[in-house]
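Good day; I would like, with your permission, to put a structural problem before you. A protein sequence and the structure tokens that stand for its backbone fold form the material at issue. I would ask you to consider whether the tokens describe a fold that such a sequence might reasonably adopt. I set the record out below, with my sincere thanks for your time.
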Amino acid sequence: MATGNYDILVQLHEKVLNKSLAMVFYKGMLNMEGTYKLGTNLPATMTPYTTFDYEVSLQNEPFVDFRSKDTLFLRFSAILKLIVLSGIELRFGVDFYVKSGITFDLTNQKMYYELKQAKIEKITIQSKYYIGKAFLDKLNYIIGQIINKYFKNQIKTLEIPIALDGLTLPLMPPGDAYKLPVSKADLKILNKKVLAAGISFFNNQGSLEGLPDLTNGKDCYIAIKDQAIQDVLDFWWENTTYDKKEEFEKNEPIGFAAPLASGIDTATRIISIGFIQTETDYDNMLLNYGAEIALNTKPGIDLLEGDTVEITNLEFVADVFANCYADVKKDIDLDTSSFIPDDKTPWIDDINIADIDKNKRLFKLKNKFTLNIDKASGRLRVNEKNNLAVKITDADFQIKFNKKGSTFSDNTWNRIMKFLKEKVLEKIPEIVVSPSLILAEKNVYGFTLGLADTWLNISGQEIEFSTNVIVNELKSNTVAVPNYIGNRETRTIHHFSCRFVGDIKTESRVGYYVMYEALADNYQACKQCLKSYNIQ
């Protein structure tokens, strides 16, 4: 069982975790500044020599380095600026990592990096001043204190804002009572590449032991049990404030429909005993239509193969209206010879009485239909809120209005009725069957996420879903200058400020916004400007 017997299993590849850390970097988060004192009991006259201001700013985005099944390092490359002796600025390159765990907060229903301890790996002098080894040793200790204090007191956790963020269902009342309950949540790192999260809502069951990597190269993989679908649907239906209604109104040209103008003209001539002759034309036919469609009872859901769903006991009310308008042009003549042919009379026998040219309503329809359907078909899809939802695509029902008084042919009238039925079918409210899975279309750190290469499949008693996640603002056409420049010939990636970038031929340059993507494309990090990415 792909879910590991959890209600929902989520697997996040490290590449999408690195994309989320790139958002942190480009947002300018995780920058540290303050004042450091070497001692507390020193004379005031020593303050200029024992107190200094500092700033630590990230040079590159943090980098996820999985170490074991429950531990990872967040690796950082930063610039440290010290102001000593009340004005002298010293600059250092600092490579460090923060040992972290991963936790799922049951209250907030979110995943976090749990930041624990920072360790300095390398300090590089970037100032013109001579600095002795003793000072560097002391500086190593001071920087360690600054960074550990920051992660201990200010940034204890860092959210993983990709999936399972709040497990929200749409249109629910506020308050914890209306959140999906979480009875079990387990996290585990697989093969030092993938973060797996198993979540159960109503039953305390599931295990990540022996679970393989199922991402298949995608950023995210999600599996959901069939029974969880039924449970979530029950919970949502009973608690949502959504009244399961859809309202719509549209105007649409209908070229296929035209009244029987010749029939109207013939009828007029017969009724007037041939003395009134009309010629009628209809142009710019427009159908103004709409409906309010409400689901009255919770339908049954049966998952089939692929993305197909069978819906049973579907009951809904459709309050439908339709108005048809057209530009009517009518020429009305008095035929003084009645039915005698014009070429048989010695006088001009057609006298124009009136010309009519106006927009006219041809019919007005309104009725409320209560429809009970034993079986209907639908498709499982990811909706705009990134919930799994069933969209009804086929149902056996009819929308029939009385044709009495209409001048349309039976064939045309039936086509109008079929058209209205199709529009009602399109607007039957979707049926939500899962919490929000991926945070596409949601603002995260000032960025928005999109989905690409999405795959959805119903298999056995489970639904499987995989996708790639795109940070819209970090796509190659939205940021002026990539942070990294790669050399296609040497397969080496450099920071854009590296002195070796100038040596790369223009045609051999390739830009990357996220370091991990370059490494995933088999580029090697420059040993001069990107030392922190040369991991052993």
